[in-house]
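User: Just a sanity check before I run the rest of the batch. Below are the structure tokens for the first item. I only need the designed sequence back.
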């Protein structure tokens, strides 16, 4: 009787993605996704054909674990998966986001969630953010044009110490886009108008004036934007924010005046 052992076939070796790589992150997203979440995306106008079904809160937790990593962000974006692009936004380094990269990602926008997340959590934190508003406002694709006004609204909210003059010059852009009846454009235009109006008393007055004119316009979309903005500009929370901004500026001006007076030679 032969004592030769029977050879057992071993399973083919699997390629294991390196920790921290885009491949590993995508594998994790695939594991975290669910059909229920993916099926529910349609209710919010989000594409599910390139999605895994991962909640945004879970994406934020994963991004925190991964940390800021620009190279990973670029690789994740290139996969074109919905959640991978959101994750790319969360791990990207604002200091390494160039105008060319902003343009490239903007051309890839195909839904409101990726567009708004990029503008609200990344693009508005780069030094050249407002420089893209006018350029993107001239674009024709719906989500690229939306990006102009989503970025304007996001910067207006987050750029606390920014010069209001840089925002005041954007009112003509809002008025020029107020007749674009596409749903995701008109809502972003209204968002931007409300955002400018919340920065301080001067911009609030200018936003109120434009909103009133739009509310009386013959064009139905312009009227919708005007009335939508008017409701927000009259809200107690908005008026409180405007008053707080005014008080903060008065305090800063008083402090500066005292400092200058103290420095004068005797």
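Assistant: Here's the designed sequence for the first item:
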């Amino acid at each position: 009787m032969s004592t030769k052992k029977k050879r057992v076939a071993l399973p083919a070796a699997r390629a294991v993605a390196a920790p921290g790589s885009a491949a590993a992150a995508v594998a994790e997203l695939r594991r975290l996704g669910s059909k229920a979440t993916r099926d529910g995306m349609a209710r919010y106008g989000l594409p599910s054909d390139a999605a895994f079904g991962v909640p945004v809160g879970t994406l934020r937790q994963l991004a925190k674990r991964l940390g800021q990593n620009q190279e990973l962000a670029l690789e994740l974006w290139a996969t074109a998966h919905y959640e991978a692009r959101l994750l790319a936004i969360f791990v990207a380094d604002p200091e390494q986001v160039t105008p060319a990269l902003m343009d490239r990602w903007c051309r890839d926008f195909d839904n409101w969630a990726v567009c708004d997340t990029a503008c609200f959590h990344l693009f508005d934190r780069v030094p050249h953010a407002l420089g893209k508003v006018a350029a993107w406002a001239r674009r024709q694709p719906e989500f690229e044009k939306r990006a102009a006004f989503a970025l304007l609204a996001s910067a207006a909210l987050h750029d606390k110490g920014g010069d209001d003059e840089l925002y005041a010059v954007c009112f003509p852009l809002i008025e020029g886009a107020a007749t674009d009846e596409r749903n995701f454009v008109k809502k972003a235009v209204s968002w931007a108008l409300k955002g400018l109006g919340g920065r301080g008393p001067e911009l609030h007055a200018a936003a109120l004036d434009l909103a009133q004119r739009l509310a009386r316009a013959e064009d139905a979309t312009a009227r919708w934007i005007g009335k939508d903005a008017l409701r927000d500009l009259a809200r107690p929370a908005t008026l409180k924010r405007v008053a707080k901004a005014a008080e903060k500026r008065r305090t800063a001006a008083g402090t500066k005046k005292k400092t200058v007076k103290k420095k004068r030679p005797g």
